């Protein structure tokens, strides 16, 4: 019985090892995430909310024009760059560039940590625009 348990754990460990060092995960882009209706939801206030959200997570967010911003996150030797577009009804976070995140253009995959960073940024933006 103990041998079967050990073999089971060994099989799980091999599976995790092989999948953990695989091709990466598909890039997660945020598209048309809704902004709740709010009289205070002006383009200027939404820009401020996006900048606050990024700042709380270590992103450097710079406005690039009305309804446009660029977010940059640098962690150790890793760098992620995203385009953030928004209006008074929705926002988008789209992959732009990266360094040391195993990005593969042909199949649009990247290290799974990138997707977690984007999901955290999306959640933070949602929280900030909800309290405008």
Q: Summed up, what is this model?
A:
The chain is an alpha+beta fold and 132 residues long.
What does this structure look like?
By secondary structure, this protein is an alpha+beta fold. It has three helices and seven strands. The strands form two sheets. The chain has a five-stranded antiparallel sheet, with helices on one face. A two-stranded antiparallel ribbon has the order 1-7. A hairpin with a 2-residue loop joins strand 3 (60-65) and strand 4 (68-75). Helix 2 (43-56) packs across helix 3. The longest helix has 19 residues, at 2-20. 20% of the residues are buried.
Radius of gyration: 19 Å
Based on CA inertia axes, which overall geometry fits? Answer: elongated
User: How is the main sheet built?
Assistant: 5 strands, antiparallel
Strand order of the largest sheet: 2-6-5-4-3
Roughly what fraction of the amino acids lie in strands? 25-35%
Compute the average pLDDT: 89
Uncertain residue segments: 14-19
Distance, first to last CA: 60 Å
What is the helix content?
Answer: 25-40%
Highlighted features:
32% strand; 132 residues; single chain; 39% helix; alpha+beta
Note the topology.
Layout: H1 2-20, E1 25-26, E2 30-34, H2 43-56, E3 60-65, E4 68-75, E5 78-86, E6 90-99, E7 109-110, H3 112-130
